[in-house]
Amino acid sequence: MADLTGLTGGLEYPTLVYQPATSDNLPHETAHQWFYSLIGNDQARDPWLDEGLATWAEAAINGAPPFPNAPIPPDVANKIGEPMSFWDRFDEQRYFLGVYLQTYRALLSLGPRSQIDCALHLYVLHNAYQIARPDDLLNVLETSFPNTKQTLTNYGAHFQLASANRPRHGGEQETGRVATLAALSHQASTLSRDGVV
User: Fold this and answer.
1) What one-character-per-residue DSSP string does 12-37 give?
2) CATH 1.10.390 spans which residues of the chain?
3) CB atoms within 10 A of CB 175
4) Are residues 5 and 23 in contact, defined by beta-carbon separation less than 8 angstroms?
5) CA separation for the pair 156, 100 (Å, rounded)
6) How far apart are the first and last CA of the chain?
7) CA geometry: angle 116, 25, 74, nearest 5 deg
8) Separation of alpha carbons 96 and 55, rounded Å
9) pLDDT at 177 > cutoff 60
10) Hey, which end of the chain has fewer CB within 10 Å, N or C?
11) Nearest-CA neighbor of 107 among 74, 79, 141, 132?
12) What topology is assigned to 34-193 in CATH?
């Protein structure tokens, strides 16, 4: 991290964060080392993937996201999946509430945080060093939460089933990897449900 006193917010780059050392959003900016750096995404098309997941990680460290009880303005409610061309029309507060906070709430509405965290671990394992799409997140979340697509769609996420049509690592090896990840996710969900983890 590079301490830039006087900077409002932060700027993240792979392996580097610029921000004031005393900033409250250090966990958020550090989380971008995973969500957009380790697992890339098209930030112009799907800003909710990196900003929402960084907010999720930030809340794990800080105990809650920033402004956890803030109302979502109607003009940005249930629109997490909109591209930056939509969000560029709004001020920073509406963008924050519509993407960062609303994605956090959407994930939290799926179920227990520990199970969501297990699914996000699988998302990292499965998509590291690649450009992820919303469908990639959907695939891992659905291993623990069968109603994920409907829940996230209600919040405005868009899915295209692109990951099924897009080449990944290839053939039988990928099929075995996905089956292994699904089995691990199911086991993690069972352990979490039973209070073991």
Assistant:
1) EETTEEEE-TT-TTHHHHHHTTTBTT
2) 34-193
3) 11
4) no
5) 13
6) 32
7) 70
8) 10
9) no
10) C
11) 141
12) Neutral Protease; domain 2 (1.10.390)
- The phi, psi pair for 44, rounded to 5°, reads -75, -35
Helix (H) or strand (E) holding 39: strand 39-41
CA gap 96, 105 in Å, rounded: 12
Determine whether 59 is exposed, middle or buried from the number of CB atoms within 10 Å of its CB (0-12, 13-18, 19+).
Answer: buried
Helix 113-127 and helix 171-193, axial crossing angle in degrees, nearest 10: 160
Task: Kindly report, residue by residue over 85-124, the tens digit of the pLDDT.
Answer: 999 999 999 999 999 999 999 999 999 999 999 999 999 9
- Residue reference for tokens 């507060």: 93
pLDDT tens figures, 11-53: 777 777 788 877 778 889 889 989 998 999 999 999 999 999 9
Residue 48, sorted as left (phi over 0), alpha (psi -120 to 50) or beta, turns out to be alpha
Concatenated DSSP letters of 52-75: HHHHHHHHHHHSS-SSTTPPPPGG
Separation CA 9–CA 20 (nearest Å):
8
Residues in the chain: 197
Tell me the backbone φ, ψ of residue 7, rounded to 5 degrees: -75, 135
CA nearest 53: which of 63, 39, 69?
39
